Amino acid sequence: LIDRQASVLNTTMMARMMKLACSLLLALAATQSMLVVSQAAHVFDAFRVAQFDQGSKPLGSRRVTVNHIAVGGKSLMLDGDGDSGSGSGSGSGSRTGGAEHDVSRRLVVVRADDGLTKEKLAKLVDVDRAVALLVVLTTADQAAARESASLGADELQRWRDLEAFLLERKFDIPIYFCHDSDVVSEMVETLNAALTDGSRDRYQMVVSGSEATPVPTVPVHNLQGWLHGAADAAGASTGAAGDEVPTVMLVANYDTFAAAPQLAVGADQNGSGVVALLEIARIFGRLYAESKTQGSYKLLFVLTGADRINFAGTKHYLENVYSRVLDSVELALCVDSIVGGGDELFLHVSKPEKSDEVRAMYNTFRNVAKTMGIKFAVKQRKIDLSQSSRNFQHEHFSLKRILAGTLSSHAESTRQVAVPGIVDTRANVNDKRLVRNIQFIAEVLARIVFNVEHNAGQLLGGPHAVSETFVARWMDYITSQPRMAPFITKKSPVLVELEGAMKKTLSDVDKSTFALSSEYMFYSSEPLTMSAYKVKPFFFDAVLTVVIVSLLFAIHVVTRYVSFGKFSIL
């Protein structure tokens, strides 16, 4: 009886101990889980590099989802400019300062201003075998940036090379950009410190969602609006054809381009041109509202789309506009990137100064620049008909035998597929220079439409001067809207606002839409968020493992060698 009771007691005690052990194990596991889940507080916007095909050639970042442990990349940037074709072996890690940091199967987080170059990026992907990349964009002080010049030439060239590299080859990993913030800075500092301190926390980076799908049809929208002058009104009263009245065109494209579609806000290229067109439409709309201040020319304002894709919008407009409209055009002035290139302005033209008409038109620009103290030059370049693509927007008008030019702050063409679009932001716009250059355009147009002598002083002042408030507000708005052509729809806020602004000051505003025909196939680019989950380092997991193993060993000893009610060591 005593033996039977001892056996029952042993069974009961062992059951209780097993239940207690399971509870302890579950508690430890739950504790580790809570340490991860409760600290998933870092959530921020992430912007993926464009994914597209050129013909049958896949380009850009081909993956969307992320679920990887992150590692800091600051020390990796201290290596010399890497070479995608060199290294001590594929996937062997990156050696810095005598220490080896393995980034294979890791998401690498680097700051843009830590010196990321296309060579270092290639090494991270091709040699070190990183499975994802997050580039943190530092935010410049806006007040200082607006009072001074934009990024230096070397920095712009670095970005130009980097963005071109991101778009000229295929990456089988997700590559993201994000803006800097207090949360992101804390995360980056922790990751960089963890490279040398094994007790620091790590981060598990997660981006959920489905993979990108092709955009089957890209609709492109062109906008135009008119201001009818005194001669036009007189012609209407006498029954003369309105198309016989001379016309001056002001043209700008509203789309832009960047390596990451959601970051393509194009302050200089070509937000500055759009804002200039809208402000000049406002100024002349007020003048033309009164019969006594109407000019002898009609003014035609045109905003084109998809011009960053081989001037698709401009070509479609010229192919479909009435020939009588083009026959009436005496000048087509294209406005492109008028603030980011520097303090000088350039008028890029195709027609040489052989005729009095052409010479007089170019001299109008020169005289206004002299009056305003602006450094200015006319740059004439013959159109290369052997090339299928054009360098400037005005060249398409010149091929229609229209006197045309592109006004820009850049001495050379900016119409490349890859431009430093990611850093072309509001913070790098000099507002005073932009207002001055818009005033320059308005003064030139005033001398033309009002037939004023070249040596006249400033014509537009007081209520007809450029409004700094209007320019600043529109620049704030236009640089808050991504404007990469494949992702602009008829319901896109920026397109709706542009059409509304033109209708406020212009008449006969019309929007024409066409399907983009291009060798490029773009993939969907949705706004995404990245979550950063804090995870404990290997040291924590090792200690937890030791505790669990020790507990299991103790249970084994107790159940194997201890008998209750009757102690025995077998």
Low-pLDDT runs of 5+ residues are 33-38, 83-92, 94-99, 141-149, 236-240, 566-570
Number of strands: 21
The total count of helices amounts to 15
Mean pLDDT: 84
Distance between the termini: 22 Å
Overall, the morphology is elongated
| Percent in strands | 15-25%
Instruction: State the secondary-structure class.
Output: alpha/beta
- Taking strands numbered 1, 2, ... along the chain, how are they ordered across the largest sheet? 17-16-18-15-13-14-12-19
Radius of gyration: 33 Å
The helicity comes to 25-40%
- Biggest sheet features: 8 strands, mixed
Features of the shown structure:
alpha/beta; 15 helices; 570 residues; disordered C terminus; eight-stranded mixed β-sheet; elongated; 21 strands; seven-stranded mixed barrel
Explain what you see.
The protein is an alpha/beta fold and about 575 residues long. It is about 40% helix and about 20% strand. It contains 15 helices and 21 strands. The chain has helices at about 1-35, 120-125, 140-145, 155-170, 180-195, 230-240, 265-290, 310-320, 325-330, 355-370, 395-400, 430-450, 470-480, 495-505, 540-560, and strands spanning about 40-50, 50-55, 55-60, 65-70, 95, 100, 105-110, 130-135, 170, 175-180, 200-205, 220-225, 245-255, 300-305, 330-335, 345-350, 375-380, 405-410, 505-515, 520, 530-535. Strands 17-16-18-15-13-14-12-19 form an 8-stranded mixed β-sheet, sandwiched between helices. The protein has a 7-stranded mixed β-barrel with strand order 1-10-8-7-4-11-21. It has a 4-stranded mixed β-sheet with strand order 9-3-2-20, covered by helices on one side. A hairpin with a 2-residue loop joins strand 5 (about 95) and strand 6. It is elongated and about 110 Å long. The two termini are about 20 Å apart. The model is unreliable at about 35-40, about 85-90, about 95-100, about 140-150, about 235-240 and about 565-570 (pLDDT under 50).
